[in-house]
Amino acid sequence: MRGTILVIGAFAAALLFSTSAWVQQLPAIKSTTVDLPAGDRMFPGGSSADAINNNCLACHSADMVLNQPALPRATWEAEVRKMINVYRAPIDESDVASIVAYLVKTKGED
Amino acid sequence: MKQNPNRNIRGRDLLHVPVAGAGATADATAVTSLFPRVLSRRSMLRRIGLAGLSLAAVPAWAEELVKLSLPSGPREREITHDFPQKGTMILQRTRPPLLETPMEVFDRGVFTPNDRFYVRWHWAVIPNSVDVNTFRLSVHGHVNQSLSLSMSEILSLPRVDLAAVNQCSGNSRGFFLPRVTGAQWAHGAMGNAKWTGVRLKDVLDRAGVKAGAIQVRFNGLDEPVVPDAPDFKKSLAIDHAGNGEVMIAFAMNDEQLPLLNGFPLRLIVPGWYSTYWVKMLSDIEVLDKPDDNYWMALAYTIPDTPHANITPGQTGVKMVPINRMVPRSFFTNLAEGASVPAGTSVPVRGIAFGGDTGVATVDLSSDGGRSWQPTALGKDHGKYSFRQWETTVPLSEKGSHSLMVRCTNLAGDVQPSSPNWNTSGFMRNVIETVRLTAT
């Protein structure tokens, strides 16, 4: 009997509290470990993709580039310079022309 | 340099080969809304493959693709089930992850489920493990007393909750014309959740902000791959940070945050673009001079013009940090090019949000914007939340029809009829149009 009253009491309390969303009990915050996909696919195109494969995949996967629309050569040149100057990509200066050439060939509009 | 207690928890093995989730494949094939745009499911082949092969070896031909209605190619994106704590998502980039929410998810409810909530990271060094027993939130800088708060100390502060839209500054960038570089999102770089946490104000008060403080800077556990690249940090003005609405969330839709959405703590900046909603928040620094770090001074800046709009090629424009969101509305039950029966009243519905204030009205036009009819609004979950809208449209004649939807917010701001343009692809909020065929 006493157990029943306690249960009803608890139920009534739950009803009262449920009118305000933020007294709801949250699940305990638990330590979390996940695996993230590697994203290690290479750029297609054989040897024409060597420079972009060697220099660009440390910071981001190839799909970011492959999902871009066709853009002018000047835009791709600026993008590669931004990666070097702003985001500190350690790109060998002698590879810049090959990377831009690949981008213009696969994503160029002029 | 101060020792960061969270530093030992990072370190992702870049060579790890992911194992595809077996249970996730059923979801995409079960979608029955009017967004049936998975192109090549090959689900039978996939099942045969799954029966006989290791899941790690799901072959390339088993890829599922979705076609986004972008103005030019490439329009196809992979559908992915491979990310932890995430269901079916549109893959924009694998590393660091850019995952887009498919539009049909927004048709199912006003809150976006955690496992379908979009994901956007800047740098690829993302801790893949967070121990809540050793995690600390540091508060320092121009304060009376530096703090190093454990999760249990944070959980013991007064709790608040708030429904709020989180939207990427570049949501819908893929629709910009001329096209611009960046994540080529369709409309799914947004979501709405009930956030539960503590007020940033309470945390700042505990540290005691000194006179002369002007900004508060936020940093998370993610780091650049290249050590001298600019770490991702964002700042808010001191009055904004302490306004009692900005919060530190430890729960999202009544569950702890998915790791990719910022576990264990995320800054919530209601009404402002997601760039300020720092994920895996671990460091709060009160500044007595303006934050000139790259991510405030150069990245995420917009032209200081109406709708952040400029003409392509225009130069010499004053730039300011992106800030408040603007009103938007979307169709969620009708995809571009959908067929509907002629001579019937077509149910039309979707979601809207007001930006930095609530939704006043959502109106629909079926005559190219000459006249507008109000729609019925769903339950109000607060001014920062998505709001559902619905109506019916009689389409008596066979042939093509265009429907337009327009949100006006409580401040009287209305979606523009022509799209804005800027070099970063930010702040798109033009009136959306869907073309239908009545047959």
Explain this structure to me?
Chain A has helices spanning 2-17, 50-56, 63-66, 73-85, 93-107; one strand at 32-33. Chain A is mostly helical. Chain A is elongated and about 55 Å long. Helix content of chain A is 50%, strand content 2%. Chain B has 439 residues and is mostly beta strands. In chain B, 9% of the residues lie in helices and 32% in strands. Chain B is built from seven helices and 27 strands. Chain B has helices spanning 25-30, 43-52, 104-107, 151-155, 200-207, 238-241, 294-297; strands at residues 64-67, 76-80, 89-93, 98-100, 119-120, 129-130, 136-141, 147-150, 159-167, 190-199, 215-220, 233-237, 247-252, 255-256, 266-268, 281-287, 301-303, 319-321, 328-331, 339-340, 344-353, 359-365, 373-374, 376-377, 387-395, 399-409, 432-438. In chain B, the strands form six sheets. Chain B has a five-stranded antiparallel sheet, with no helix packed on it. Chain B is globular.
Based on the model shown, name its key terms.
heterodimer; A: 110 residues; mainly alpha; 50% helix; elongated; disordered N terminus; B: 439 residues; mainly beta; 5-stranded antiparallel sheet; 5-stranded mixed sheet; 7 helices; 27 strands; 9% helix; 32% strand; globular
Question: What proportion strand of chain B?
Answer: 25-35%
The order of strands across the largest sheet of chain B is 1-2-3-4-5
Number of helices of chain B: 7
> Which pair of chains has the greatest number of interface residues, and how are they split between the two chains?
A-B, 37 and 64 residues
What percentage of residues of chain A falls in helices of 4 or more residues?
Answer: 40-55%
**Given the C-alpha coordinates, what overall shape of chain B results?**
globular
Radius of gyration of chain B: 22 Å
The proportion of residues in beta strands of chain A is under 5%
Euclidean distance between termini CA atoms of chain A: 84 Å
Model regions low in confidence, pLDDT < 50 over at least 5 residues of chain A: 1-24
Count of individual helical segments of chain A:
5
Overall pLDDT score of chain A: 84
